[in-house]
Amino acid sequence: MRYIKLRDLEVSRIGLGAMGMSQGYTGSGTDDAESIRTVHRALELGVTLIDTAEIYGPYTNEEMLGRALKGRRDKVVLATKFGLVSHGGEGAWNLDSSPANIRTAVEGSLKRLGTDHIDLYYQHRVDPNTPIEETAGAVGELIAEGKVRAFGLSEAGPDTIRRAHAVQPVTAVQSEYSLFTRGIEERVLPVLRELNIGLVPFSPLGRGMLTGTVRSTDQFDENDFRRDNPRFTGENFRRNLALADEVKALADEVGARPGQVALAWLLAQGDNIAPIPGTKRVARVEENAAADAVTLTAEQLDKLSSLPPAAGDTHTEAQARMLER
Ligand SMILES: NC(=O)c1ccc[n+]([C@@H]2O[C@H](COP(=O)([O-])OP(=O)(O)OC[C@H]3O[C@@H](n4cnc5c(N)ncnc54)[C@H](OP(=O)(O)O)[C@@H]3O)[C@@H](O)[C@H]2O)c1
């Protein structure tokens, strides 16, 4: 495994997203034993960047990771997120990045993760009711106290990134980015390059579709959010399967798995990019980590870059309202 820097923070080029171990694709606790084995295998393979959030579960994903990382904390660059649980009474899935809420959130995350510091603490979504300067200032105080090492943003637009960075340097922006979702290329990526901010692409496998293993929505768990996601329904799904087939054809040429090619394409987009593919299975974390060794020729990269993005929105309407676009 090779390592890169997100600003001053050294991380493995391929990270591990833990969300799907407790939410999104399946319910909490579906197979924690295999999830924990997956985390341990990732660490053996040199993966250091592990990604969670207080909203995943909510809380159960951090709790499971806390159990998985017992005795292994020093091997991990641990990233979690605040701002989608309002602890003042509104509860889960309510935007709240006020300083008071961050103070409450960080104590909960530290406790559940069984640690005295978070390496990378992201605002999960921009909160229109709290000026980003106040949020950045609050995280800056946590950094000064040693509870947090570095500050991140997720799905923030260019103006918010600049304003936050002026108060507290932003180490990384985590946003959806993959062969299927290219929206940040025009306005966000140039700002990250200019300000030397790292990029952590989430859902780098197109929520599983770019691995070539999704053929029908019938194979999804009944809790799986993809069942009503626009990209996985009707005509969009059929078109996106055809796109995934094009990635698979190129992967066959390279002698790699389609998901590995999708990750290798992301790694080729810059020097400070660390995607966090999500899996709860040992065999798949092995496959994903090995993408670090896959190299694509300029011609293959061009071919992939010229594919159209996926058909259909990556979010439902309610989720899309929380994004800064
Ligand atoms: N900041 C945000 O707002 C945000 C939003 C979404 C996600 N994230 C983060 O990004 C991480 C990754 O995103 P994601 O999980 O949504 O999407 P993803 O990484 O694009 O895809 C995950 C899906 O692909 C499957 N998969 C993974 N590796 C595979 C392989 N080698 N072969 C076949 N299938 C494979 C997984 O199934 P199995 O688990 O069954 O293997 C899961 O269904 C999350 O875990 C989370 O930490 C952040």
Question: Helices, strands, pairings?
Answer:
Elements: E1 3-6, E2 9-12, E3 16-17, H1 32-44, E4 49-51, H2 60-68, E5 77-82, E6 85-86, E7 91-92, H3 99-113, E8 118-123, H4 132-144, E9 148-154, H5 158-167, E10 170-176, H6 188-195, E11 198-202, H7 234-254, H8 258-267, H9 282-289, H10 298-305, H11 317-320
Helix pairs in contact: 1-2, 1-9, 2-3, 3-4, 4-5, 5-6, 7-8
This protein binds NADP nicotinamide-adenine-dinucleotide phosphate (NAP).
NADP nicotinamide-adenine-dinucleotide phosphate is lined by residues 17-20, 25, 51, 124, 154-155, 174, 202-208, 211, 213, 259, 276-281, 284, 287-288.
Task: Give an account of the 3D structure.
- The strands form 3 sheets. This protein has a 7-stranded parallel sheet with strand order 3-4-5-8-9-10-11, covered by helices on one side. A two-stranded antiparallel ribbon has the order 1-2. The chain has a two-stranded antiparallel sheet with strand order 6-7.
- It has 325 residues and is an alpha/beta fold.
- It contains 11 helices and 11 strands.
- Strand 10 (170-176), helix 6 and strand 11 form a beta-alpha-beta unit.
- Helices cover 37% and strands 15% of the residues.
- The chain has one domain (3-320): Alpha-Beta Barrel (TIM Barrel), CATH 3.20.20.
- The mean pLDDT is 96.
- The chain binds NADP nicotinamide-adenine-dinucleotide phosphate.
- Residues 17-20, 25, 51, 124, 154-155, 174, 202-208, 211, 213, 259, 276-281, 284, 287-288 line the site of NADP nicotinamide-adenine-dinucleotide phosphate.
